[in-house]
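We give its fold:
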Amino acid sequence: MKLPTRNSLGCTAETTRRVAVFRTAVEDLSIAVQVYPNPSDGKFTLRKDNGFVTDHISFWLRTCSAGKSCGRKSVSPESSAACFCRPPGLYPVRITANGQTMVKRVWVR
């Protein structure tokens, strides 16, 4: 970063320093995980914010038809794709990590 200065007499000076910028940690699961696309065709992706530190993310999805369900206990924290049975409708996806649980809804066309 470069910082130029000038005083009231018109004299100028400049200094350069290296600045380190660190990402703020994200601790709230509801902010840290996105489920997309929404609406979808029955496939969706979970994406975790890099500021949210965890070893795994679990998700569970229950479809409305015949009580079918699918879920995974350990999903890569970086990114994961999942495909589930249709029919079209609104589906709750329960996501758990670091002792936090949240529910996001996914619309399947």
The chain has a mean pLDDT of 78. Residues 29-32 form the longest helix (4 residues). Helices lie at 29-32. Strands lie at 2-6, 12-16, 33-36, 43-48, 57-62, 69-75, 79-83, 89-97, 100-108.
